[in-house]
């Protein structure tokens, strides 16, 4: 709920008639954790449904969900993007989001 409240404030600011910047959609970060050794398992550490709830409140689409993967942060610290990783689950998530934005 704390993260949702922060995102609500941001969306509210952009949707303010005086600012009027379009919100294209919601991207839910750290949606679940999947251990490398158990790729078929998902652990919803921070709960589920927050991104969809916010998207519905803002009347926009849920563009995608990004899993919690330590390699993402490690790559960012080295100046690398998500496509320079070995974990296809993250790459797939970002490609789905890009596809949703383009469509």
Fold and architecture overview:
With 103 residues, the protein is mainly α. 45% of the residues lie in helices and 9% in strands. It contains four helices and two strands, in the order αβαβαα. It has a two-stranded parallel sheet with strand order 1-2. α2 (50-58) links the parallel β1 and β2. α1 packs parallel to α2. The radius of gyration is 15 Å and the shape is globular.
- Ranges where pLDDT stays below 50 over 5 or more residues in a row are none
Overall residue-averaged pLDDT value:
91
Share in helix: 40-55%
Shape verdict: globular
Q: Tell me the structural class.
A: mainly alpha
Beta content comes to 5-15%
Strand order of the largest sheet: 1-2
For this structure, the quaternary state is single chain
DSSP strand count: 2
Total of helices: 4
Based on CA atoms alone, the radius of gyration comes out at: 15 Å
SSE order, one letter for each helix or strand: HEHEHH
Distance between the termini: 30 Å
Q: Tell me about the largest β-sheet.
A: 2 strands, parallel
């Amino acid at each position: 709920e704390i993260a949702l409240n922060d995102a609500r404030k941001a969306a509210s600011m952009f949707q303010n008639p005086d600012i009027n910047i379009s919100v294209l959609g919601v991207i839910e970060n750290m949606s679940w954790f999947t251990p490398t050794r158990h790729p078929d398992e998902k652990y919803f550490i921070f709960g589920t449904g927050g991104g969809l709830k916010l998207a519905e409140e803002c009347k926009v689409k849920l563009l995608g969900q990004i899993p919690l993967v330590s390699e993402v942060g490690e790559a960012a610290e080295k100046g690398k993007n998500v496509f320079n990783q070995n974990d296809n689950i993250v790459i797939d998530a970002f490609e789905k989001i890009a596809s949703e934005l383009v469509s």
